[in-house]
Amino acid sequence: MKTADHIISQLEQRKFDKLFFDLYGESMQDPQSMDEMYKRYQNLIRTHKDLFSSNTTTTEISHDDAEAQEKSRSSKLTTEKAVSIFSTPGRTELGGNHTDHNHGRVLAGSINLDTIAAVSKRNDKRIIIDSEGYPRVEVDISDTQVRTSEKNSTEALVRGIAAYLTDLGAELGGFQANTTSRVLKGSGLSSSAAVEVLIGTIWNSLYCEDRFSPVELAKAGQFAENRFFGKPSGLMDQTACAEGGIVGIDFLNPKDPVLEPISIRFSDYGFTLAVIDTGGNHADLTPEYAAIPEEMKQTAALFGQEVCRGISIDELSSRIQDIRSACGDRAFLRAYHFIKEDQRVPRQIQALREKKIEEYLKMVRDSGKSSIRYLQNIYPAPLPKEQGVSIALALTEDFIENHRAKGAARVHGGGFAGTIQVYIPTEHFKEYQEEMDSVFGKGSTTKLSIRSKPTMQIIA
Asked: Cystine design at 374: which of 235, 244, 337, 390 (Cβ 3.0–4.6 Å)?
């Protein structure tokens, strides 16, 4: 058992260098970055003590033992609860833009930006989560039924994950936690999926003896998001946050996705992977996101299928008039994107396995073009004047061309607003970062590296 004070002491003695290298990779080679990481964890634990100052529990004594009761009253014996630390990474989508929800194939990687939590058990069924910068979340998981009033809330996610794990036979208890995150919100790095997987990981470690695999925890998050939160998402985000490393994921059978790990570092080939936050509007874009799988599935229905997986380009083209009449032109184009993108992912995986980086980057560019032309998720249709993603792509293409450099850029994640993903030659990255920050604001460019470790309890 490690108490908060014990962990703070270990942090002060800098006992976790290897752990931080394993979690955060190359960025920890900079002494200043390592110092900042130690401070981050120290603040996390101290905040846990401050928030949950009652993290001591009176020693239980039999009512029949009068002498013991008197001793307890006089000495006020207390036992400090154990504190654990958990870490769940964000993810970056490398291939397969909007394919998972139609049982397609994707390529994704967990990243060095994570959400961390300090956690202690409770003796009841209450969940208390204090996330830095957000209101406190409190849920009693004695009730795991859907609550309409909790739609689009973190409370809904907590209750939904509890419902999923309970249905699998888990006996869950309460916990109190505080979190802090470096997974940029609204950046396409899956900050919400990281939180979902983190919650499942806490229960899995504290109450389930780690019986659930990372994929099962991902399913719990998706279930909560779909059924309780009210967002029709696929399973890619949660799976990539849970697994660790770069992984190809085939969702032909979404209940049992096939994973293909790939070991590669883009920095070994002279490229820096990054995302650019273009800002964008803060309107609710859920209808824009939801329309993509809906239109793909409308097209699939004309073929007697629920999803587009398995439909060929020739079959799609043979029904083009029917699709345009019944579903509209955009539905045809989005189905076309799905088929081409789904076929592209295995080729990207093969290129990475064979270390053919230039071939891989060409397919990244092709993926980006398909998202622009056919998927059409570069800006919200009702807001044509807000096209930060398009501007970022144009500037990046010019930068690469002007420097006669190899590289690639594409829309990242859900699209419509938010981020693009880039591969820039490392020798030019600083100049590129300065140019992007001058347009979209200081700090808009975030350098990424792939994290090999899955979601996990890192200090117990």
From this structure: 337
